[in-house]
Fold:
Amino acid sequence: MLTAAPALRAVAVFEEMQRRHPDLSTGARRTLERRIRSWRALHGADQEVIFRQVQEPGRMGLSDFTDMADLGIGIAGQPLAHRLYHFRLAYSGFEHAHVILGGESYVALAEGLQNALWTLGGAPLEHRSDSLSAAFRNLDTDAREDLTRRYDALCAHYGMQPTRNNRGIAHENGAIESPHGHLKKAIKDALLMRGVADFDDLPGYRGFIDEIVSRKNAHHAKRIEAERPALQPLPGQRTCDYEETIVPVTSSGGFTLKKVFYTVPSRLIGHRLRVRLYDDRLDLFIGGTSLMTLTRGRATVTGKRAHVVDYRHVIHALRRKPMALLNLVYRDQLFPRDAYRLTFDRLLEKLPEKSACRLMVNLLALAHERGCEAELATLLAVDLAAGQLPDIATLCAHFAPDPATLPDIVVHLMPLIAYEALLGGDSMPNGEAA
Structure:
């Protein structure tokens, strides 16, 4: 059986023997496993050999991604689906980690790699990554070739020779695969000592990761300093670490990109925007003028469209059409905090739909115009707990003054000649006034 099927497990052989010989004792299993192991040592197939390498300073840097789902990280009470981009120098053990919110992609690799190189202060001669199979997934041939060209151009910008390990051969990236596990164990230990895996915001979590990596680098400080002179100098500036595309702003008050709808100010309807797409954000431009930065959204795993909505972009239009709120496609994403969403649910229960929509829109307008989104949410939560509906008149008075009721202040500017009286009659020796 072993000759015919060399990969056959010893337990399978033993179970077959028991089927043929029911009186065979189960205690014979360990004996059989030892004998099969000895047989394979004498007659088994040749196995793959791993050739350990001597690492040269400044020679190789490696990149890879590792999933962080098993650590249960949360941001403000919400689970954070993310990966870590991980860079390491093979010789000195210098490490850098960057939180990636999306999947493995060229954008994530380019941003993480450049952050690592600029933190390090130099570039190795060679950069090794995995086969980028995750980044290539679902891309057509032209898109794959374009991605390959961009990756090669990224490495060329820093004078690095791009190499990739063969798909599915993890030990070819062994100088970083094993440190993946060590880094995740260090993060897990730090979380246990911290006592909670939830962070107030994403920058706080990223700072937490940076601190752990810095402590690990401190253990290799002498080797890192010894390797730095062997690194190539950095170029004058970073290269492109984003995707760029042109999107039209529709009459819906936004644009769709990668199955995600984003709202923008309605004055941009009909314009075409240039979008720089990063891992965690979008930078918007009209022509060469920077407009704003939006948080990047992502479609669900089922492919359902997602929405990134800022109520400030559409509140003026909703005030004219409050009933549009009732069946709005992105209604749940419109509310900036849970208290607003829960309040609207309560209003729909207690009031006619038209009244509920009008009151909710007025609450959103109040939050925007008076700059009191957080404070208003707190008061709405109090009303919810008390089982009562919000009183818009009382809330408006609480967050007074109303900008519409402020008096017009007229400032009378004095003519500049009037300031001559402050100078007196003295003059400087060269004839200028003192």
User: Anything to note?
Assistant: The radius of gyration is 32 Å.
